[in-house]
Amino acid sequence: MCGIIGYTGNENAVPYLLKGLGSLEYRGYDSCGISVFQKGKIKTLKCSGRIQTLSEKLCKNNLSSETGIGHTRWATHGKPNSRNAHPHESQSGLFSVVHNGIIENHASLKEKLVKDGFVFKSETDTEVIAQLLEQNYSGSALSSLSKTVSQLEGSFSLGIICREEEGKIFCVRKQSPLVAAKAESGSFVASDITALLPFSKDIFFFNDDELAVIEKEKISFFDLSGNEIKKTAETIDFSASHQEKEGHEFFMHKEIMQQPHVIKETINAYFKNGRISFENINLNKNELQKTSRIYLVACGSAYHVALSGKYLIEEMAKIPCEADIASEFRYRNPPLNTNTLVIIISQSGETADSLAALRLAKNQGAKTLSVVNVPLSTIAQESDSVIFTHAGPEIAVATTKAYSCQLAVIYLLAAYISSCLFLLSEEEEKDYVSKLSSLDEKIKQALETEPLAKKLSEILGKSKNIFFIGRNTDYPVAMEGSLKLKEISYLQSEAYGAGELKHGTISLIEKGSVVIALCCRKSVFKKMLSNIREVKARGAFVVALVSENQKELAEGADFIISLPETENRFSPSIEIIPLQLLGYHTAKIKGCDIDKPRNLAKSVTVE
Ligand code: F6R
Q1: What is the mean pLDDT of residues 538-562?
Q2: Ligand 1 lined by 487 (C-beta under 6 Å)
Q3: How confident is residue 486, by pLDDT bands cut at 50, 70 and 90?
Q4: pLDDT at 120 over 80
Q5: 239 pLDDT tier (thresholds 50, 70, 90)
Q6: Long-range contacts made by residues 227-230, C-beta under 8 angstroms, separation at least 24?
Q7: In total, how many domains does the chain have?
Q8: What is the SS3 string spanning 534-598?
Q9: H helices of 191-271, where?
């Protein structure tokens, strides 16, 4: 949610800020802006819309400055217009601020500031910070920032420039991500490492409640009392090639096609001598044997993986599992104790609700394990143990490859726990591992359904009433397929456990409704056929996803997508492929902005 960038150095800051904002645009893209120094004053330029619009505006203004801050916004307080776009200046133009997060006590602070004579220009919570900085200023921007931070409640990472201290960027992090880097041309600060990697691989990570002063020659860190903190940079081994589409029209398409490779990387990272090995993970067998309940907690697509995990871990490890939406988990007082394992699943490792759920679990003494894609992200750093997915950076807002890698980790984890509890023999584990090893090849074959998905997208594009149905582990896949379609093509669809339709929703089925039935799981295939007949009898156009050796049996379906045969438990990984392609091609036909769907952001760092 919102991206922050700052640069100070020997060169013109403007191109650096624009490049950084381009990399961060996936975090929010409804408005943007920059502030730089111009002839001893702060100059701010902002607009509603995308970075491209800002870039055109900047070209006309011919701005040049050695220090500046920039922001790309996902609106929380106030409409996405240029008035509410960041940066926000204080009343006299002494400070300019970019902010990621939410100031929860902004209303009371604003009321007081207004009484003290401050005039506000925007509807945002952020403007309060700029005004407080000015009110608290008595010759040192760093001291003013410390005092201001003590008055703020909520989550925030801030980038600040002060008219009286040209060449410096003041920063702070509290529960919103922030990183900094030193390069030859100068120093940078940003919301995440993807914006810094083109300039430097040596990254400084902020802890909560740490301040920093970014100068061209050095980056200094302080605690809230002003004591200096010594830090060294960590070298990140990520290439910046993820920032190129490499011949694909959209990042989403590139990322869908990368799936066989990244799934193989993820699975191979945890195989040793034909067995599943989590030896570098701080999760020992004794603790697993004492575990009486598992909660899988996540948001959005990662929650769909959590649901698949519930089915699979309960089936294989016989431990009661619950899958929870993180924003519900944290407010429903779940019974947690030292025998509870809480598994947090997150691509970004920064999702505010998932992070809050992790902290709640730790506070109540539960063991925590996270499944995370971004190394050194907050969730990865704060969990007792971490299993990394090896999806590489994911740029498209709608997740595809990270979801698939999370599923792969769930397959590994379910078998690992089962084996630790002596429910899976060595021989059975080896057989499971060998089947899992061929998953990438099956996914490659599933990607060949793209022409069918494209054809089907023409039907879907005209439809108003779309349902995805499945049973067992195929039910969460139905949910994910429906989410993929909705979020990028803006078509309304719903997902149901196939047996549940007749308890109410079937009344919506009529001629022209489309029902996409996931039938690859053999154990429930016949039940799915009955459900297909029920909706067909009421006029639905039925699309069936079936394993290739069962396609003749899918009688009654109007459109069949035949998929490679696989072990029952791994069918989610195969079925999701045509559904991702279906969402993609439907959105393409409708001319949607596939990589940056409206109202969304990649990393949801507000609650
Ligand atoms: C949907 C999507 C989101 C994320 C969710 C959690 O395509 O990407 O639903 O899955 O916001 O994000 P992470 O995994 O970063 O915690």
Answers
A1: 87
A2: yes
A3: very high
A4: yes
A5: low
A6: none
A7: 3
A8: HHHCCCCEEEEEEEHHHHHHCCCCCEEEEECCCCHHHHHHHHHHHHHHHHHHHHHHCCCCCCCCC
A9: 251-257, 259-268
522 and 574 in contact (C-beta within 8 Å)?
Answer: no
Per-residue pLDDT tens digits for 210-225: 999 999 999 999 999 9
Instruction: Tell which of 222, 238, 254 closes a domain.
Output: 238
Q: How far apart are CA 561 and CA 460, in angstroms?
A: 15
Reference 572, options 342, 307, 270; nearest CA is: 307
- Whether 230 and 286 share a structural domain: no
Query: Structure pTM?
Result: 0.86
Q: Per mean pLDDT, which range of 41-45, 89-93, 396-400, 531-535 is the poorest? A: 531-535
Do you know the residue count of the chain? 607
The domain of 432 spans 242-437
Domain match, 375 and 516 both: no
DSSP-assigned letter for residue 207: P
Q: Is 443 among the domain residues?
A: no
442 located within any domain: no
Q: Which residue type occupies 542?
A: V
- Domain co-membership, 463 together with 581: yes
pLDDT at 237 over 80: no
Q: Looking at residue 184, which CATH number applies to its domain?
A: 3.60.20.10
* Mean pLDDT of all residues belonging to the chain: 92
Query: Average pLDDT for residues 65-70, to the nearest whole number?
Result: 96
Q: Which of 293, 337, 335, 340 lies closest to 317, judged by CA?
A: 293
Residue from 250, 327, 604 to probe ligand 1 pocket by mutation (most atoms less than 8 Å from CB): 604
**Do residues 515 and 541 lie in contact, with contact meaning Cβ atoms separated by under 8 Å?**
yes
Domain match, 428 and 486 both: no
520 is catalytic: no
Three-point CA angle 421, 568, 546, nearest 5°: 165
Ligand 1: residue whose CA is nearest its atom 1:
398
Mean pLDDT of 518-524: 90
Out of 176, 299, 325, give the residue to mutate to test ligand 1, the one with the largest number of ligand atoms within 8 Å of its CB. Answer: 299
Q: Are 570 and 411 in contact (CB under 8 A)?
A: yes
**Looking at the predicted structure, is the pLDDT value of residue 241 above 70?**
no
Same domain, residue pair 210 and 317: no
Assigned domain for 25 exists: yes
Q: Is the CB of 594 under 6 A from ligand 1?
A: no
Domain end position, chosen among 412, 437, 462? 437
Mark whether 602 is an active-site residue: yes
Whether residues 200 and 108 fall in one domain: yes
Lowest mean pLDDT among 94-98, 186-190, 269-273, 542-546: 269-273
Pocket of ligand 1 contains residue 300 by CB under 6 Å: yes
Q: How far apart are the first and last CA of the chain?
A: 10
User: Is the C-beta atom of 457 inside 6 A of ligand 1?
Assistant: no
Rounded Cα distance, 389 and 404, in Å: 9
Same domain for 181 and 205, yes or no, is yes
pLDDT tens digits along 18-43: 999 998 888 888 899 999 999 999 99
424/460 same-domain check: no
